Amino acid sequence: MFWQLIGVSAACLTSFAFFPQVIKMYRGKSSKDISLITLVQLSLGVGLWILYGAYLKDLIIVLANSITLLTLLIALFLYRKYTIKI
User: How many CB atoms neighbour CB 18 within 10 A?
Assistant: First the structure.
């Protein structure tokens, strides 16, 4: 039980770690301080964590990384929206 609590706590902290950046991009209508390489690299890594968690049948790993990936996909959308002016 203790280690599951540690896992859930870690999952919550890391799942929402990029959320403040998404809020900053949205409110400021700017992505100038955000690295595209970091967004893409982290998204790919999180995608691999989801696959690994599915392989292990570990719901905490899958859910935490799915939330993170969703946040990163929103960040990528905002990055594109505020960087590429058509």
Answer: 19
Contacts 24+ apart (CB under 8 A), 5-10: 7/60, 8/60, 10/64
Span 23-57, pLDDT tens digits: 999 999 999 888 999 999 999 999 999 999 999 99
What angle in degrees, to the nearest 10, is found between the helix axes of 59-83 and 19-28? Answer: 20
CATH topology for the 2-83 domain = Monooxygenase (1.20.1280)
C-alpha 84 chain-centroid distance: 22
Q: Where are the domains of the chain?
A: 2-83
Scan for tokens 């696959």, then name that residue: 51
